[in-house]
Amino acid sequence: MTVQIRYGDQTMETNIAVFKGKEIRKTLHKNEWWFSVSDVIAALTDSADPKQYIKKMRQRDPELNSYWGTICTPLEITAPDGKKRETNCANTEGIFRVIQSIPSSKAEPLTTPQGIKKIERK
After folding, report:
1. What Å distances lie between residue 93 and 70, 76, 80, 81, 85, CA to CA?
2. Three-state secondary structure call for residue 79
3. Domains of the chain as residue ranges with CATH
4. pLDDT in tens, 10-30
5. What are the phi and psi torsion angles at 32 (to 5°)?
6. Which comes out higher in pLDDT, residue 109 or 46?
7. How confident is the model at residue 46 (pLDDT cuts 50, 70, 90)?
8. How far is the C-alpha of 65 from the C-alpha of 57, rounded, in Å?
């Protein structure tokens, strides 16, 4: 699903990817796809509160926490209520780093080279 957003005289595209039936918002930024970190966490962990999950995940993984500002960038994405809000997003490399910190059976296949190749093909 593609959503076009007008910002002044510019138009940006925001797309929604679907993973296991859950929507993951993504946007094109500097000619590469950036994914909503909280959407990825929600899809892979079934967490009722992805923000709290991220907070605890960063506490468990000091290396992830120390590079969080490099991995994640706040980008404006359309929220579920239709309003544009800044949301922590990560590019493909960054999102894989975040996924590596998720101790979940859903995340496990995505952390292997075979899992990454499968996603790259799609």
Report:
1. 11, 20, 25, 28, 23
2. coil
3. 2-121 (3.10.260)
4. 444 445 554 556 788 888 899
5. -145, 155
6. 46
7. confident
8. 8
